[in-house]
Amino acid sequence: MSVMSSPQGRAFHFSRKPPPSRPSGGSSSPPRKPAAYIPRREHPVETDSNLALDTLSGPEVRREELAPETIPGKLPIHRARKRLLRALEKSDVVIVTAETGAGKSTQVPQYLLDEGYSVTLTQPRRLAASAVSSRIAEEREVMLGSEVGFRHSLQNRVSRDSRLIVTTDGYELHRMLNNPERNSDVLIIDEFHERRESMDALLALWEKRQAEYEAGRGPKPPKLIIMSATLKSDELSERFGAPVVKARGRNYPIELRRAGDSILDDAIHMAELGKNTLVFLPGKGEIRQLEEKLRNEGVDAEIIPLHSQLTAEEQELAFRKYERPKIILATNIAETSITIDDIDAVIDSGMERRSELIDGVESLVIGPISRFNVEQRKGRCGRTGPGIYIYHGEKAIKDLEPTPAPEITRVPLERLVLTLKAAGEEIETLDFLDKPPEAHVKEAYSNLYKLNLLGPRKHVTNEGERVAELPVDVRTGKMLVRAADMERKVPGVLKAAIDLAAIIESEGITIHEKRRKWIRFTDNETKSDHIAQLKVFRAAQELDDLLLEVKGVDKTSFRRAMELRYMLDRRMGVTDRAMPGEPEPYNESIREALLESVWTGHMDSLFRHTGDAGRTSFWKGVQGRGERELARSSVVRDAELIIGKPFDIVMLGEHAEPKTIPLVLMATAVDPAWLMKHAPGQLKRGIKGFVDKAKRSIRNRGRGTPRHNGPRRVR
Fold first, then answer.
1. DSSP-derived pairing of the beta strands 93-98 and 223-228
2. Which of 157, 160, 163 is nearest to 119 (CA)?
């Protein structure tokens, strides 16, 4: 869900000055047409992990169809093969550093397979896991799901014969916590420079398992290979006593070109030169905006969005070869997780969106990338020929921070803390490479206690055990558990809650700028954004795919929500969904039970109305920390007490100073009487005075007292 438009600045300047002349391309791009000699990648389908080999199907790809520079024996990493195998034979830990484009992700696992090892390879994202496994299967000329497979929270393409399993670091963390004895011979943590929370936790957990084995208190964990484009290899080598194997990266030079008037100008110019171009943008909103501009310009190129919420079929378009240039509009998903071999030029906005926990509030920070990110993005070209890199950032490259901060030092930790606790581990006892801030850990424990997921002695409650099993945010998980408990009494509420959970985890499915379109599906809902989004979601299921965005529904978020719904249905045991064309059950009883589930899951995120200024309403949270604006896209009206998600957007102002917009997202009006009756005791004590003020406001309105006394507020 887009909560605001992009900040103004050079990185987001998509307007174009008319050129003196340009070959005409018509008003719209012709249909995409892949070159006939390039086989279409097969997409993974859901299969049972024990499915017989002969039921798996996949493309047969001849090695001569691969570009010469990407044939395994010609990749830079190949020169390090013998050194790597010798190091692994002598040591339990090996560090591999190789520049982008060296081929480490696809080749190192194969070197190990050829030596008889079984291997688990982790990737930061699901897209990367499926893409890497598909490429390795192609190179080995085997069916995907036989010798080589992949699995993550949405799909499982693994059989009894799988000796290489590509997965996500988060999925492998859960497996190692809950099934520590089922290990491959070697665990490879790839793209470690991204320093995702689950990567750091997986490494810390492996280190603890190794120490337990050496002390005679547990089974031997797998050998470990840590791979990265660039990282502090000396620090890791000293920590683990591990050898470092290095390999150089790309084969061709990259020209640094001065930025043009706008990203749009440069993208069109590269297409006119016949260059396949990768454009890095901060998020989906900027991708959608630039895609629209390019199509309006009639540029003669394939225009392909690429981000994590696209379907596998949509993501796969970026890997194909075409008869004309392609322009790929990507988030940082294309920075390290995947490799598109035929990229000639990279245009870099120099900006990114990242999550940070600031003063206890999750924040979306829109700001400059680091010098490390610049090198990674630059390295996306120059693999099969000379490359071009164009930087559009506001900050000079030399003034950027050297590296990004590890995720575990800047994000909320509730889910990680609960996951570890439920598996018998403590976040405090794991020796992280970078220690999580003590304040963040304390905040996580406090929130889990308020939600009754942890008890007063930090033990996991029965409810906490159930929430920990779900691959969603803890508040969304608590909502689902409550709905499951009410399903027998109110049939249909669990399906509605699963739909809502899928929407929440997809960050909403509506386009903020098209509120007038999607609001028509909400049946004049004014009490709950959750109910409004659910109504839009179910209406969207009846729409033709081409009409989704016309009606204000974000197509990619909607599809992502449908994928998540399928996964959560399996987790929660829902098997009786309505047939296509038939509506899911929904009535007043389901609505009331669903609202109760929403309140139950989010009762620690409580806000009281404090005033209005024009169309903007202001709210104060139970924990203080100033006032917040209710998101402009909210349908909630005339409420005094709501639950919602506190969320800050931090962006650079005109003079590069940070500007914070404090918001409340996904709000729902709360019945104060219900809240005080059902809130856990530890939460009730802290909110009583807060709720009493809201009750007084409601009583005053009942007597006809104007909602807001005094002069109209001006922000």
1. parallel
2. 163
Same domain, 313 and 235: no
Q: Which of 324, 326, 342, 325 has the alpha carbon at shortest distance from 380?
A: 342
Is the separation of the CB atoms in 553 and 513 below 8 Å? Answer: no
Same-domain pairing of 375 and 462: no
Give the span between the Cα atoms of 635 and 515, in whole angstroms. Answer: 10
pTM over 0.85? The answer is no
Asked whether residue 48 is domain-assigned, the answer is no
CB neighbour list of residue 556: distance below 8 Å, 6 or more residues apart: 284, 305, 307, 309, 310, 311, 314
CB atoms within 10 A of CB 217: 9
Residues 428 and 564 reside in one and the same domain: yes
The gap from C-alpha 529 to its chain's centroid, in whole angstroms, comes to 22
* Residues 6+ away with beta carbon under 8 Å from 295: 28, 29, 303
Domain total in the chain: 4
- Tell me which of 218, 247, 276 is where a domain ends: 247
Which two tokens mark 664? 């409340």
Within 10 angstroms of residue 350's Cβ, the number of other Cβ atoms is 24
Cα–Cα distances (Å) from 307 to 124, 261, 349, 433, in that order, read 13, 25, 15, 29
95 near 233, Cβ under 8 Å? yes
CA dihedral 402, 2, 259, 300 (to 10 degrees): 130
Strands 606-613, 616-621: pairing is antiparallel
Rg (CA), the chain: 26
pLDDT digits (tens, 9 = 90+) for 184-242: 999 999 999 889 999 999 999 999 999 999 999 989 999 999 998 766 788 889 999 99
